[in-house]
Amino acid sequence: MPSIEPNRSRRSAASHTAILDAAVELVAEVGYARLSIEAIATRAGVGKQTIYRWWPSKGAVLLDAFLRKNTGDSENSPGLPDTGDLDADLKTVMRASIEELHDPAFEKPLRALTVAVLTDDALAEEYLRRFEAPTREVKKQRLRTAQESGQLPDDLDLDAALDAIFSPLTQRWLFRTGPLTADYADRMVEVALDGIRRTDSAISR
Amino acid sequence: MPSIEPNRSRRSAASHTAILDAAVELVAEVGYARLSIEAIATRAGVGKQTIYRWWPSKGAVLLDAFLRKNTGDSENSPGLPDTGDLDADLKTVMRASIEELHDPAFEKPLRALTVAVLTDDALAEEYLRRFEAPTREVKKQRLRTAQESGQLPDDLDLDAALDAIFSPLTQRWLFRTGPLTADYADRMVEVALDGIRRTDSAISR
């Protein structure tokens, strides 16, 4: 029966896509707390058991939905921009992140996924392995290029450097402690590169 | 009936305390997702209606429980340590935060409150007003002292400075991207003060 498997596999792929689409749409509409597997199944036109066969939780569905668009795959990623000017390239990246965060269709599912990750240890482990670690590697690659051209110290702690550059924006977004503006993106890149003791000289550079 | 009101008010205060205690204990045991007003009421020995009379949600109960111990009240706060050495004082504060985060009785309720804040706009507003803003003011006061003694530029953006100093630790804690160690605390203070371009000179200073 050679024709059955391809059909089944096509149906499977279509259900898979429908489930991820439904999860992203629904979570933007009702938020994470009110998102249910049942509602995802109804919207996707599949049975609940189909979802549970592939995913252990609604958070796991959201992670796959997110990874579909943001593979975080360092081998296939285009990488960070590299014009040779580290300051400018980091500002480009931060400004692009801010634009994405202003789009509710992106922001709401990402916030929901974040909440799931903060409360589910198994999902957190998967998130770190499948998204955070490869994304970090892509960013580190840009810092290494800057090291090679003498713009950053050779023995810089790259993890500490990435934390310094990117944490403030994530933090301000999550806790809504202030507006997410291009100015803020620029300022935080300057502060991360030159430190708060020397921020002025950084700004006027 | 002058004796009735004092008794009622004493009973009220006792119930209030019992509810906050129960919420903190329970959330450390079962996590935020499985925390319910019903379970808090049972543990506190009060009716559900008593809780709903005072708080709109389990997140609001957690905020009050947290504020009870960490008032974030700039007028009554002891403030940040001030030995005259900004680097050392910030490291002291960051190391103390890390110690607290290693205590599950503190960490679990704080993580639960954070999740609640990230998903509940009304609670987020209250959290910013009652905890984040006064805490920020206490920290800014320490930076102003450093400005007065010439250790920081006069026109430093204090909010950007606080984001740079404190966000990496919060981030690493929330997403579990690495170990929370005293070394990390020291490193991130040095990076925030002197920037990743100059981290080496900062370390060897």
UniProtKB/TrEMBL annotation, chains A, B:
Domain HTH tetR-type: 13-73
Pfam families: TetR_C_11, TetR_N
Residue spans binding DNA: 36-55
Keywords for this protein: DNA-binding, Transcription, Transcription regulation
Record-given protein name: TetR/AcrR family transcriptional regulator
The organism of origin for this protein: Rhodococcus artemisiae
Organism phylogeny: Bacteria, Bacillati, Actinomycetota, Actinomycetes, Mycobacteriales
